[in-house]
Design brief:
By secondary structure, the chain is α/β, with parallel strands linked by helices. It folds into 2 domains: about 10-105 and about 250-284, 3-Layer(aba) Sandwich (Rossmann fold); about 110-250, NAD(P)-binding Rossmann-like Domain (Rossmann fold, 3-Layer(aba) Sandwich). It is about 35% helix and about 20% strand. The chain is built from 9 helices and 14 strands. The strands form 3 sheets. The chain has a 6-stranded mixed sheet, with helices on both faces. It has a 6-stranded parallel sheet with strand order 9-8-7-11-13-14, sandwiched between helices. A hairpin with a 2-residue loop joins strand 5 (about 95) and strand 6. Helix 4 crosses helix 5. The protein is globular. The chain binds NADP nicotinamide-adenine-dinucleotide phosphate. NADP nicotinamide-adenine-dinucleotide phosphate binds near residues 133, 136, 197, 200 and 226. NADP nicotinamide-adenine-dinucleotide phosphate binds next to helix 4, helix 5 and helix 8.
Length: about 280
């Protein structure tokens, strides 16, 4: 049989994009499974997005990821957007069905998979989410779709926090409530889970930590961080030292990536390979 040199292409579009680590885990996965696929990290300025997506179609890309600032703008350029990505209002993963590009959002689903693996089932739970940006939006929508009873959105910017809460109350069956974050937020004994969905503590801002007081929290509360780099943020360290169960941001990043891998290739993702490739990259 003749040698096949053709590569199947996927990648991420972002601006800036140089520090996006997803290529490390996707390319490690392709290599581990012996797939002739390649994940490219592509810088696309905002006004070039429509042309870039046309280019990906012409090049036969099997799908792609979108990161800041393209997650919302890309939606108008696709043939279809999944119902939960539409509810979140952002697409981070595009898959191809025939010659149609379909938008999905795997951020919140990756988060959900991580919390369930940590033994936390969101149904009926009361969960505090710090932040109201893109990550918080994906996480709160997926928690609501998974049956969370109460979602408490704590955010510094009042308009943004209130808008997310209004959206959740209008479009999901969870009860959402907004708390302005102008001083220390005290987690009370009714809360089952706390999620930092802000960028506080993200590399290189290693000394920062969300202003939350866990002293009245129940001992069985799960404390989660979305920050993947460093995986062991100050929040994770503090919560762990006080005996709380914790979940760092690496699982969300790995699982949003494994979901993308499976959508694109149709094969089960080599999760351990992907996780260890990312861990090595962050440690370097
Ligand atoms: N693990 C993963 O797979 C994954 C996936 C996606 C994102 N993330 C992480 O999630 C984080 C947030 O990303 P995003 O896309 O949601 O960003 P974003 O849309 O810019 O939102 C940032 C959020 O953080 C809040 N915030 C930032 N600095 C703050 C401060 N000093 N005090 C109080 N609040 C502050 C903002 O509050 P205001 O509204 O008041 O400005 C906003 O709610 C990033 O660190 C990103 O790395 C992780």
């Amino acid at each position: 049989m003749a040698t096949n040199y053709k590569e199947e292409l996927v990648g991420v579009l972002g601006y800036p994009v140089a520090e996006n680590p997803t290529c490390v885990m996707q390319n490690a996965a392709f290599e581990a499974l012996g797939l002739q696929w390649r994940y490219l990290t592509i810088e696309v300025k905002p006004d070039a997005l429509p042309e870039a997506v046309r280019g990906l179609r012409a090049l036969g890309f099997q799908g792609f990821n979108c990161t800041i600032p393209h997650k919302v703008a890309v939606m108008a350029l696709l043939d279809e957007v999944s119902p939960d990505a539409a509810l979140i209002g952002a697409v981070n993963t595009v898959r191809r069905e025939g010659d149609r590009f379909i938008g999905e959002n795997t951020d919140g689903k990756g988060f959900l998979r991580g919390v369930r693996e940590a033994g936390f089932e969101p149904r009926g739970k009361s969960i505090v989410v710090l932040g109201a940006g893109g990550a918080a939006r994906a996480i709160t929508v997926e928690l609501a779709l998974a049956g969370a009873a109460n979602l408490i959105v704590v955010n510094r910017n009042i308009a943004r926090g209130q808008a997310l809460v209004d959206h959740l109350n209008a479009r999901t069956s969870s009860q959402a409530r907004f708390m302005a974050w102008d001083k220390t937020y005290h987690v009370d004994e009714t809360v089952d889970g706390v999620v930092n969905a802000t960028s506080i503590g993200l590399y290189p801002d290693l000394d920062s930590t969300p202003d939350v007081d866990l002293s009245a929290a129940r001992s069985d509360v799960l404390v989660c961080d979305v920050i993947p780099n460093p995986p062991d943020t100050r929040l994770m360290q503090t919560a762990r030292s006080r005996g709380f169960k914790t979940l760092n941001g690496l699982s969300m990043l790995v699982y949003q990536g494994t979901l993308g891998f499976e959508m694109w290739t149709g094969q089960p993702a080599p999760e351990a390979v992907m996780k260890s490739a990312l861990e090595k990259a962050f440690a370097a």
